[in-house]
Amino acid sequence: MLYITYAPGPGPRACLGEGLARTELFLVLVTLLRRFQFVWPKNAGEPDLKPVFGLTISPQPFNLEVRFREKEKERP
C-alpha cells in the first residue's frame, strides 16, 4: 500500500461558507436591532439568571416586548 503524507498537514477543516454565514448573521441581527426595540416588560420583575441544565445549558424562559422603532425624520 502507498500512504501519502502531507508534511505540514492540510490544517484544520474549515467550512468554506463560514465567513458568509457570519456576515449574514451579523446583517440579520443589525437589521432587527435597527427596526425594533427589545424592552423588558414592567410587570416581569427581575430576570432569573439560573441556568437550565439539559443537553445544553440554556437560560430560564422569559418574555420580552418587541416594538417597532419610530422612523427618524429625514434631515434637510
TrEMBL record:
Lineage per the UniProt record: Eukaryota, Metazoa, Chordata, Craniata, Vertebrata
Names of the cofactor(s): heme
Domain of life: Eukaryota
Organism: Muraenolepis orangiensis
Protein name listed in UniProt: Cytochrome P450
Record keyword Metal-binding present: yes
Alphabetized UniProt keyword annotations: Heme, Iron, Metal-binding, Monooxygenase, Oxidoreductase
Keyword set includes Metal-binding: yes
A Pfam family: p450
GO MF terms, alphabetically ordered: heme binding; iron ion binding; monooxygenase activity; oxidoreductase activity, acting on paired donors, with incorporation or reduction of molecular oxygen
Binding site for heme: C15
Recorded family membership: Belongs to the cytochrome P450 family.
PANTHER family noted in UniProt: CYTOCHROME P450 307A1-RELATED, HEME-BINDING MONOOXYGENASE FAMILY
